[in-house]
Write a structure and sequence with these properties.
By secondary structure, this protein is an alpha+beta fold. It has helices at 10-59, 66-76, 80-93, 219-225; strands at 99-110, 114-125, 131-142, 145-152, 157-158, 162-173, 190-201, 206-217. Helices cover 36% and strands 36% of the residues.
Length: 230
């Protein structure tokens, strides 16, 4: 005689199906929320990028507020890909260091107190915005002897994606004019070295461009320097 079929646990099966439906609904809601959040991130990225670029154009600077942009994105989005894209934008907009080529140095005037030098420098700007020549400074040397230090503020702006020759006139007070004593009676010009740097930039960015340039002091200039002291 066959055994009667056991009754199916209707209540338990119904509860299990209901729980499965709830899990599915939660998964769908979670997926929808993630999609909405992801859409908000991708919508916010162009807006933040536009504001970022507008600040670059309006200020004409190269030091960009990258941390502020990343912080703003961090408040609205947590996507690593989005942060990488923003960081890439910041790097792409970063300023390129200008290049400097010294062409000549001329002794304009010599007195017992100082020597005046005129520097001919060329600056190459590979950026999409102009750069300002802010200061030129350095020291004058004969062999291993430091003769003096000086600085000047050349007037000039290097256009975007271009180059410009700049003239800087430095007044270098004598710190060690006695170092020229061994050369005072020499018939040969005395070679000297000017070791300096040009500071080029804008409102919030500065580049220190080092350079070296050689010149010569003639016997007449040495006598002018030694009228009081050699």
């Amino acid at each position: 005689m066959a055994k009667p079929e056991a009754p199916r646990p209707v209540a338990r099966l119904t509860v299990a199906r209901h729980g499965l439906k709830l899990q599915r609904r939660k998964s769908v809601r979670r997926l929808s929320s993630n999609l909405v959040r992801l859409g908000g991130m991708w919508l916010s990225f162009p807006l933040l990028s536009l504001a970022y670029a507008r600040e670059v154009v309006s200020n004409g600077i190269a030091r960009l507020p990258r941390l502020h942009v990343l912080a703003a994105l961090g408040r609205h989005a947590r996507s690593p890909l989005l942060l990488l894209l923003t960081l890439g934008l910041a790097c792409a907009c970063a300023a390129k260091p200008p290049r400097l080529q010294p062409h000549a140095v001329i002794v304009s005037q010599v007195t017992p107190q100082s020597i005046q030098l005129t520097l001919d420098l060329e600056v190459f700007n590979d950026n999409s915005f102009p750069l300002i020549a802010q200061r030129v400074e350095g020291e004058l040397r004969v062999k291993d002897n430091l003769l003096g230090r000086g600085s000047a503020r050349p007037e000039g702006t290097v256009p975007a994606n271009s180059s410009k020759r700049l003239s800087a006139q430095l007044d270098v007070p004598w710190d060690n004019v006695a170092a020229l004593a061994p050369f005072a009676l020499s018939a040969q010009p005395v070679p000297y070295l000017f070791v300096g740097k040009a500071i080029i930039g804008g409102q919030d960015v500065h580049f220190d461009l080092p350079f070296e340039i050689h010149g010569q002091l003639t016997g007449a200039k040495l006598l002018q320097a030694g009228l009081k002291g050699l």
